[in-house]
């Protein structure tokens, strides 16, 4: 962990009150709380959590610090970032009361000009007690989901074991922007997370297989994404170690666009063919950029024809979308 003290007194305070705990190991302290910070502000600079003047390592958009132990009591909290000149600016300040055993997952969201900080609190006591019970072979984890995608709709969130279809999935919650589910306990194992439009019976977002094998609380953050496919979302899985795992929508199509930079071809036609589909792009003029077009994941053979000369410029070029 990089130390970024603001002055000598802050460093002494940090040494006295902050202990790193980037895993789920138990601590010997009888009075401690836990904090973790995630940056979901899509147009932000790197931002950092500050507690009692101690500044943790700054993290970029869609990144998280580990879960850390912190002493109980009243804490002065701040989130800082940088302005367009690279100078530090304060984004959020508050006084926070930390009690023994508290778990806080802080999520910065919203536009960087006016960000908001979500304080998501959860309880893992029952899970830890079951996993520590030597009389039975428990292996439990917990799941909670937060909606931090600016401008996106309300989604129903479903959770199922790997191999089960959507009809067998359990609904965790219906989440609007800035809301979160409670923590729900499951056996460790492999699962799939789904998003559906409110009240719909068909998902619009399906993750790949989630390997949830640790005895921890997995925080799934629905955030904005700017890649191909709809909806414009990505789901990050955040455990206690930081370094979120990204899960794209496996049901989404790829997208492409074409720019005609051929010097001697004033207008071209393009054909893209796979075993599943064929797409045509007609009359693309010289130095023109086409609009984005959705296309299924596959291998495609590409043919390019010069319209004016009625000449094949390229035939069966291989392009792969995956």
Automatic annotation (TrEMBL):
Superkingdom is: Bacteria
* PROSITE patterns assigned to the protein according to its UniProt record, in alphabetical order: PROKAR_LIPOPROTEIN
Name by which UniProt lists this protein: DUF4397 domain-containing protein
């Amino acid at each position: 962990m990089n130390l970024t003290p603001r002055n000598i007194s802050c460093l002494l305070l940090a040494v006295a009150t902050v202990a790193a705990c980037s895993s789920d190991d138990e601590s010997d302290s009888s009075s401690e709380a836990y904090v973790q910070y995630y940056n979901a502000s899509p147009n932000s600079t790197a931002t950092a959590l500050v507690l009692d003047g101690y500044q943790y390592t700054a993290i970029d958009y869609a990144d998280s610090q580990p879960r850390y132990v912190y002493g109980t009591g009243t804490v002065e909290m701040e989130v800082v970032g940088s302005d367009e000149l690279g100078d530090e600016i304060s984004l959020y300040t508050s006084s926070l009361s930390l009690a023994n055993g508290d778990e806080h997952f802080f999520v910065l969201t919203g536009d960087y000009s006016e960000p908001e900080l979500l304080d998501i609190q959860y309880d893992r006591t029952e899970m830890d007690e079951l996993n520590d019970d030597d009389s039975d072979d428990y292996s439990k984890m917990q799941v909670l989901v937060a909606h931090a995608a600016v401008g996106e709709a309300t989604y129903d969130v479903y959770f199922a074991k790997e191999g089960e279809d959507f009809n067998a999935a359990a609904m965790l919650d219906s989440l609007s922007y800035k809301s979160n589910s409670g923590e729900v306990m499951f056996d460790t194992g492999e699962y799939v997370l789904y998003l559906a439009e409110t009240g719909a019976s068909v998902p619009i977002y399906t993750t790949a297989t989630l390997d949830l094998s640790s005895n921890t609380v997995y925080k799934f953050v629905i955030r904005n994404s700017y890649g191909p496919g709809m909806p414009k979302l990505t789901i990050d899985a955040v455990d206690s170690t930081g370094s979120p795992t990204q899960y794209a929508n496996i049901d989404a199509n790829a997208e492409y666009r074409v720019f005609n930079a051929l010097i001697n071809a004033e207008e071209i036609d393009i054909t893209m063919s796979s075993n599943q589909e064929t797409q045509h792009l007609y009359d693309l003029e010289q130095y023109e950029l086409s609009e984005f077009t959705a296309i299924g994941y596959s291998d495609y053979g590409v043919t390019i024809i010069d319209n004016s000369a009625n000449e094949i410029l390229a035939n069966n070029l291989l392009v792969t979308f995956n």
